[in-house]
Automatic annotation (TrEMBL):
InterPro entries: Alginate_lyase_dom (IPR008397), Chondroitin_lyas (IPR008929)
Domain Alginate lyase: 47-288
Protein name (Swiss-Prot/TrEMBL): Mannuronate-specific alginate lyase
Record's keyword terms, sorted: Lyase, Signal
Entry-linked NCBIfam families: PRK00325.1-2
Short name of any one Pfam family annotated for the protein: Alginate_lyase
GO molecular function: poly(beta-D-mannuronate) lyase activity
Signal is among the record's keywords: yes
EC assignment: 4.2.2.3
Keyword Aminoacyl-tRNA synthetase found: no
Length: 349
């Protein structure tokens, strides 16, 4: 009831991101910058090889040959994500307007080509579309809401790009909504994050509400012990996928709070239970081993990008000294699909 009242009160307000997306660049120097080459727009069928091809239903055993094929097939898409994320992160630090112009020109080529809008013929195709959208929309937010106004004077291209992102969001909604619960897992949560970021870019309340609905489905999947049943099927990667699943949920909760909607209370503070479960695994993953009966792959815990969500989590909830120390040792924490430099966006300066 409280959530419904807050939503009603804010329904007419313009959507906006958390404050970190609206801070001025650290410097205002036209530092030397050469715009990197953007990959050619991907306009083919979204039909890609799964890196787990040949695996059983757990989808936990990597197929090296299929993985190589996947990376080759998706090279232009991941290349676009990388260049946009890196250039926008650079703008946050030096404020060079040439960086914004670089991103606008590069994305305008993809927008005018209708890239990524073809039929997604398989699960991996749908996944690539929503991952790309998550990166592009969350990076674009930093240019759109910057008090330096780096997009001024490029209105026509900006309109084309935002229309394209909006279209990608509609396709992402169609790809991932109304799935049976047994198939709703981390992929749906990442789709919801892509939709949320685009909702704020385009000020579309319908996308905002769709993302919240998907978030609530996720929250209702968290059990009393903080586990996600559909991620428990991932055998040796169960812990890894719990860590992966929470990342977009934290971002959605942050964006919801910034727009007057508090979702952290959903399902008796489900997000906090999930976070506590994942955090406990960093020091001792045995709880996941006992739950699955399989020793866990913990390689991801040594990858800073896999832990970047902690910056968002500590902006959402008060973190203890152990978590703060873990984050401080890893900064700056960067995650391309969560918005780039999360230390810049969420850590106290």
């Amino acid at each position: 009831m409280i959530i419904a009242v807050v939503m009603a009160a804010s329904a007419g307000a313009t959507l906006h991101p958390p404050a970190g997306y609206q801070q001025a660049p650290q410097h205002h120097a036209a530092s030397r910058f050469t715009c990197p080459a953007f990959p050619a727009p991907f306009t083919g069928a979204l039909d890609f090889t799964s890196k787990y091809e040949g695996s059983d239903s757990a989808r936990a055993t990597l197929n090296p040959q299929a993985d190589r094929a996947f990376h080759q097939q998706t090279k232009s898409i991941t290349g676009l994500e990388k260049v946009v994320s890196q250039v926008v992160a650079g703008f946050a630090h030096d404020g060079n307007p040439a960086r914004a112009e670089c991103v606008v020109n590069g994305l305008d080529l993809w927008a005018r080509a209708g890239a990524l809008t073809t039929v997604a013929k398989n699960h991996t195709g749908k996944s690539m579309r929503k991952w790309a959208l998550a990166t592009l929309a969350s990076s674009w937010l930093q240019l759109k809401f910057s008090p330096a106004h780096p997009l001024e004077g490029q209105q026509e291209k900006v309109a084309d790009i935002e229309h394209w992102l909006s279209h990608l969001a509609d396709l992402t909604v169609a790809d991932w909504r109304d799935l049976p619960l047994k198939r709703v897992n981390n992929h749906s949560y990442w789709a919801a994050w892509a939709i949320m970021a685009t909702a704020v870019v385009t000020d579309r309340r319908d996308l905002f509400d769709q993302s919240l609905a998907m978030y609530r489905t996720a929250a209702n999947q968290v059990d009393n012990a903080g586990f996600l049943p559909n991620e428990l099927r991932r055998e040796q990667r169960t812990f890894s996928y719990h860590n992966y699943a929470i990342q977009p949920l934290v971002m959605i909760a942050l964006f919801a709070r910034s727009n007057g909607v508090e979702v952290t209370s959903e399902n008796n503070k489900a997000l906090q239970r999930l976070a506590n479960r994942v955090l406990s695994g960093f020091d001792n993953p045995d709880v996941f081993t006992r739950k699955t009966g399989i020793p866990q792959d913990i390689a991801f815990t040594r990858q800073a990008s896999s832990l970047a969500w902690l910056e968002g989590w500590c902006a959402l909830e008060e973190c203890g000294p152990e978590v703060k120390q873990r984050i401080a040792a890893l900064r700056p924490l960067h995650s391309t699909r969560l918005g780039g430099d999360l230390s810049w966006l969420f850590a106290p300066h």
